[in-house]
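Hi C.,

You asked whether I'd gotten around to modeling the 120-residue construct. I have! Everything is below, sequence then structure, no commentary in between.
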Amino acid sequence: MLGDTAVKFYKNGEGCYTCILKACEEFYNYRLPQDICDMTAGFGNGFGVSGMCSAVVTSIMFLSYYFKNDEAKMKCARIFFLDTIHEKFGTTCCGRLQKCCKKAIYECGEALEKTINKYG
């Protein structure tokens, strides 16, 4: 599933901010412009201040790109995704998720797949 694919990239040394996007490319056979991946370079460690988890942010980026032609659907998908993550962890804060980064990446991937299956 998407979560397993994301963890594969994480285990290969990708940052949490890119493993979600690379997993989406592989899992959905989707080619993202390189500029999109490059723009995530500063997202690591919750933007360097233990802010919002980068895997959560890049998941929302992918949802935005995936549903770019349907703003209403994208908003519903974003809310569903964030609710799913909050149900799992009670937070989207990197500082509180760092002890379980691999699990957070896995769950973001799974929540993203579930969201796309529901709204896509």
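If it helps when you're writing up: The mean pLDDT is 90.

Thanks,
B.
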